[in-house]
Amino acid sequence: MPRPTCSQCCRPLAYCLCALVSRLDSRTRVLILQHPSEAGHALNTARLAALGLENAELRIGEHFADLADLLADPGYDARLLFPGDEAELPSQQRAEQRPLLLVVPDGTWRKARKLLYCNPLLEHLPRLTLPEGLESRYRLRKAPKVGALSTLEAITETLNRLEAPRRFDALLRPFEALIDGQIAAMGEEVFQRNHG
């Protein structure tokens, strides 16, 4: 018999993170396109981002038939958060500029690239990327490359830059509690041996 889970954070009820989730409003609208293979992942940081932001939406799939409608919102300028040759660093948005629709593919690098391939409209969006050298708090996973962040960390860092001086670090509270809980469950000795 499956364990009862929270309908919001999708964690087992005994490990529900909802009390740690801050509902933050943002000028930037965030659209997270999650590859289906990530949806059941124990450390689903995209779900935590969507729960923590009032102006965010999480879509799960490989192909999004209504993507053109989502990107055509006249109140927003769409940007893809994904590295590329012409990608720019996020910088503070001025009040007179239209707010951004930040489109964030969620999955392994391979799966995120597949989302772009399956949804060609994404390839044509101007891109934002984060600077090299950022350090992930995701202490349980070996990053495929230096500076790789979880989806939640990347969204938090991007919003901190776009909407400065406002900060969105409160989004990371359930993420940090989740990681601390995983480390406690495996024991400090096992954690140090495998991840320390």
UniProtKB/TrEMBL annotation:
Its EC number is 2.5.1.25. Pfam families: DTW. Residues 2-187 form the DTW domain. InterPro entries: DTW (IPR005636), DTWD2/TAPT (IPR039262). It is an enzyme of class 2 (transferase). The keyword Chaperone does not apply. Keywords: S-adenosyl-L-methionine, Transferase, tRNA processing. Belongs to the TDD superfamily. DTWD2 family. This is tRNA-uridine aminocarboxypropyltransferase. It comes from Serpens gallinarum.
